[in-house]
């Protein structure tokens, strides 16, 4: 059994194992594939809206013969009667072989791992991480560019709250990526992520526009400016139209084999006139969620045995009630947690939401 909580817990070997397993499952005869998880139950609990993640996990489960329980509207669960996330998770783990959870609170997935006794897959926790998205992004990069190594990737849009950006940047540390974070200053990539890139000696640059680097990059990774993450709506209004790329902005100005990715949903940041160009890979990317999530379900439950070792932990865990996480959206402020701190050589970080304590 293994959990997928944060991409940075995975070794490179493990990431490659997921991608190879996904490719194999995608090419497996559908009748054979339906036997793989026959008799197993996946419970998906979604506390935030989702189209792709929830439905592709469901599709992945069904394609392997796995049954599904769950809810996508917590208003219909006993959370509405005041039940804690902790108790909800304990109950859900009693009914399931695997839990797939999306939550609006940062660090909720790490907390779920602590309180349950069945495998947990993080389907997105607040603005923290989205590891299953990252694995399908890496699958897409490898398929479309032939390799993930040494690629120049520009993240454009909301790099502050964008959990897909955070998770993919952490993964690209392992593949010598050269990264550009293109955002208005108020939604630029947080320092606690850059600190990790600095540790890994990864090259990156913060920019306000993408035009100057367009000709050099292998992938333009667009993201939505996420209205729901802003505390102050006026701040959102200032940046909501920061990017709107269309065919005329791209054609003749980039590498011939550059690809455009987007975790979706999009709002206005990619004009539909790009959809039928050779650059547009965002719908293929979303489709790749099915094989990638099939691999995650099979490897997490141990139905397909994982041979890859997990990365060694690079921190010491201490329980310290005095060291309160300064991220007001962290699970430590909503649930009875053990207030764990991950002490690293380069700082003290919240064990649950990964923010640097006191910063
Ligand atoms: N990419 C992604 O997480 O999409 P959904 O929010 O629709 O699941």
Verbal overview:
Residues 150-299 form the Aspartate/ornithine carbamoyltransferase Asp/Orn-binding domain. Carbamoyl phosphate binds at residues 52-53, 102, 130, 133, 264-265. Heterododecamer (2C3:3R2) of six catalytic PyrB chains organized as two trimers (C3), and six regulatory PyrI chains organized as three dimers (R2). The chain is of the alpha/beta class and 359 residues long. The chain is 32% helix and 16% strand. It is built from 12 helices and 12 strands. The protein has helices at 12-26, 30-33, 52-63, 85-95, 108-115, 131-145, 163-172, 191-199, 233-239, 247-250, 282-287, 289-301; strands at residues 41-46, 67-71, 98-103, 120-125, 152-156, 178-182, 204-207, 219-222, 259-261, 316-319, 340-344, 347-350. The strands form 3 sheets. It has a 5-stranded parallel β-sheet with strand order 7-6-5-8-9. Helix 7 links the parallel strand 5 and strand 6 (178-182). Helix 1 (12-26) crosses helix 12 (289-301). The relative contact order is 0.17. The model has no long low-confidence stretch (mean pLDDT 96). The structure holds phosphoric acid mono(formamide)ester. Phosphoric acid mono(formamide)ester (CP) is lined by residues 50-53, 124, 133, 263-265. The site of phosphoric acid mono(formamide)ester has 9 residues, from helix 3.
